[in-house]
Amino acid sequence: MAMIEDRRRLGIRLAVLQYMITVLFAALAASFWLLQVVQHDKFKEMAENNHQRTLPLRAPRGVVFDRDGKVLVENRHSFGISIVREHTRDLDRTVRLLSEVLGMEESRIREIVDRHRREPSYRPIPIVQDATLAQVAAVTARRLDSELPDVVVEPVPTRRYPGTMAAHLFGYVGEVNDAQLSDGEGLKSGDVVGQAGIEKVHNAVLMGEDGARRVVVNSVGREIRTLEQEEPIEGKRVQLTIDADIQRSVEDAFKATPFNGAAVILDPRDGDVLAFASLPAYDPNAFAAGIDRTTWNQLNTDVLRPLNDRAIQGTYSPGSTFKMAVGLAGLEEGVISPETTVYCPGHANFYGRNFKCWKRGGHGAVNLSRAIEQSCNVYFYTVGNQLGVDKINKWATALGLGVKSGIDLPNERQGLVPSTEWKRERLKEKWYAGETISVSIGQGQVSVTPVSMAVYAATLANGGKRVTPHLLKAVDEGQGWKPIPPPPPEPVIDISADKMEAIRDGMWRVVNAGGTGGRARIANRDVAGKTGTAQRISNQGRLAAGRTSVNLRDHGWFVFFAPRENPTIAGVVFAEHGIHGGNAVRIARHVLDTHFAKQDGLPLPPPPTDLQLDMSDAFASPVESPH
Amino acid sequence: MFERRLYYHIDWALLIALLALCALGVAMVFSATAGSASTSRMYVTQLYAIAIGLGAMVVTLTIDYRAFTDKSHLIYLGLLAALLYVIFLGDVQMGARRWIPIGSFNLQPSEFAKVGVALVLAKFFGENRGTPNWGDLALAGGLTCLPLALIAKEPDLGTAVTLVPVFLAVAYLAGMQMRILGFLFAACIVAAPLAWQFALKDYQKTRISTFLDPSQDAKGAGYQQIQARITVGSGGIQGKGFRQGTQGQLRFLPVAHNDFIFSVLAEEQGFAGVIVALGLYLFVILRALESARLAKDRLGSYLVLGVLASFTFQVVYNITMSAGLAPVKGLTLPLMSYGGSSMIATLAGFGLVLNVRMRRFTN
């Protein structure tokens, strides 16, 4: 009985177990159904995020050549180190380890990470943009130990500039900022874009298109294979109008002086910029891989303001170099003819006030070209007084002064040639005729940028065609060099070339007769030019401030072109606190020597060592410190 | 000893299902390990283990199971000796003493303890007539707890716990009153907080707490669980294909060839493969339960259920865990996971199951 009883119970209990297990397995099958079928898409994406990464392949920017095909700006290979937070397990730990490995301060890394916090976590946050080999090795070793699966080392093409040469011309590159992001198409956070100079203006041409590489990584972040690769497209190659030899001659000549300043050298026929310098310069290479804060602060607080592009942003009084504009206005308006003479007794009286010529004894009777040669103030006082300020304004503008040159560089400033309208609008005041007298010799409110002075020189050189200076000669869009036509000259006013002859003759005499430009005289080259001195402060003021203050010294100008007939070079040298225009002439001389040597296929002159500068600061005899 | 006619009563269906699961296991072990030079020969080792296991099965099949139960006290004592030996002289791997090195093999006595306990409990309850009383249960519990304590001491809590279902299942089948079962259940619930407080080690507590909320430690202890879920879920219906799984192949899944072999299957063979494997396991378990029902004597039923209890527990727990639905514990999947001792002991155990069914007509 008990036996049967036992069997029955055993059968029931086994049946219970059977059902339980069947239900259990059904539940398991349902769970897998839920995970693998219902929620499949979610987990599929999670699995892909686990093992696939998209790494950017940085496109190199376009290589920049000079007009002869010499490489000016190229790219070098460097390594960037970034954090990809998507793969971070413990950000604090990563930051701590990285600071240890890179020798950077933890707070600095954290600051960078915080700045990019709002970005999607798959986007690499660049910590070091130009890592040293030691840093690359240290990080790579840690990655092999699987300690830093969220840190990537990627090759980054980095700009290489020729030192400080033409720094303001090239500009520099840097990570795109928020403002640029919001109005630039196709830019994304982390992109490197031009921030100054041609890098900025021609960014669209120079910037390449980044590629991407989709790779499979394992659980410790090691790359297993590449799934697909989109090659980066290099930025377009660009040929500049710059002549590296002329550029170097300008900078070499400045280096032989204690002066800063600017120089812009043009081909007067079409406005090609042959050389463009602003000194002191900075080293754009410091920006190429992300500038460190110390260097940036130094550049910004430097009293010499190296970031300031004096050639297009500095406005200075033109001094005597302005006299050609007044002369041309006189001729064009019929106030004078080339033969008209004015008697200079050393001073003249206008509107009850005595205006002095720089030469105490006076120049006697002078015509236009002699007046230019001798820089006679009384002659131009007289002509300017007869013209009135508005006619001076009209012809100075026609020659390129007081307006923007239109050069393809960012943030050009505009100089000023005053007019009655200007004064009425800006100062809400009437123009007094007496003010015109100062304007006639390039003083008073007249101010110009060096680049506009170069246009002025080129317009005088080519007989009245106001060229637009430009830097782009050709672009290679993949099918070889495609020339960029020079922008058309500004058709403001017709200037008759024959009327300009007397002025050009005067400029020739400045160099080749008895003028202040004698240092630029080269046999058979017929260099023409005009010096000028821009007063920084009234002489009385300077006496009060102390005689020796370098910062208060006058600036020296020299505008020039050569040869007199069919000129091939025109330009300006501006020597900041150069005391005399003659010192600017000495700098220009080396540039001209280089230009002609190159033209004739002769060996280029070596960098000058002694320019025999005139450092005598004779401000004590007030008006007699001329040009 | 082996009578020819017994041959006709071997449960071929069960045997084929077992071999199918072994083959599936070898394929998955190969998939999970072939990619790395240091592990690429593991599937061969697994094949050897299966061969040895089948040899052990022949032994446990050929000799009448009553001969084994008769000698179960000796087997039991032998096992205790082996477990003691392991504790004091065993090989240390990954912070635990679990192995006895024999040549190039490492024998893991705790795996065999499951079969040993099944034998000794079958004999114990088989000899007892009628409903087991408190004294019987206490004695049987003691017999279970002795090896359990030794295994837990290694420490190998996972394997130790698999002995509990053996005791419960055999006692249940032997007619243990339901209220006693209810009482034991209640006692467990009361004991849980105490165990949490005093018995569990920190890493064990972490495992449980992260199971309840894996995201609280997404890159640490919860990592395996999340990765297991991703592995299974990303497999979809069809799976990613043999050796094409990204989670297993790229090592996002830890110990893929071992504890998480079922996740590898789910990833590479998809829901379809999962259903096949689940079906095979269910078939094996139900078929074995059938053997328990058909057994000639209670002893045979108990023995079958004893062997089956730890097997079923481990299968269900491991599969649940490999879907990221249970706390991660070092419990392998019998027949599929890489591991020689487990394979041999499991096949030997099923030898006993076949044995009972085969001899249902003998006297």
Number of helices of chain B: 15
- Let me know the number of strands of chain A: 21
Q: What gyration radius of chain B follows from the Cα positions, in whole Å? A: 20 Å
Order of helices and strands of chain B: HHHHEEEHHHHHHHHHHH
Approximate helicity band of chain B: 55-70%
Stretches of chain A where pLDDT falls below 50 for ≥5 residues? 620-627
What proportion strand of chain A? 15-25%
* CATH architectural label of the largest domain in chain A: 3-Layer(aba) Sandwich
Please give the domain count of chain A: 2
Question: How far apart, in Å, are the first and last alpha carbons of chain A?
Answer: 138 Å
Main sheet: strand order of chain B: 1-2-3
Rg of chain A computed from alpha carbons, rounded to a whole number of angstroms: 35 Å
- Mean pLDDT reading of chain B: 87
Oligomer: heterodimer
Q: How would you describe this structure to a colleague?
A:
The complex is a heterodimer of chains A (627) and B (363). By secondary structure, chain A is an alpha+beta fold. In chain A, 38% of the residues lie in helices and 19% in strands. Chain A folds into 2 domains: 52-240, Penicillin-binding protein 2a (Domain 2); 244-298 and 314-624, Beta-lactamase (3-Layer(aba) Sandwich). In chain A, strands 2, 3, 4, 5, 10, 17 and 18 form a 7-stranded mixed beta sheet that branches. Chain A has a 5-stranded antiparallel beta sheet with strand order 12-11-21-20-19, sandwiched between helices. In chain A, helix 14 crosses helix 17. Chain A is elongated. Mean pLDDT of chain A is 88; it is low at 620-627. Chain B has a 3-stranded antiparallel beta sheet, covered by helices on one side. Chain B has one domain (7-358). Chain B starts with 11 loop residues before the first helix and ends in a 5-residue tail after the last helix. In chain B, helix 5 (109-127) packs parallel to helix 15. Chain B has helices at residues 12-33, 42-62, 65-70, 72-89, 109-127, 134-153, 157-161, 163-173, 178-199, 202-212, 221-235, 246-249, 261-294, 298-322, 340-358, and strands at residues 91-93, 96-102, 105-107. With 363 residues, chain B is mainly alpha-helical. At the A-B interface, helix 1 and helix 2 of A face helix 8, helix 11, helix 13 and helix 14 of B.
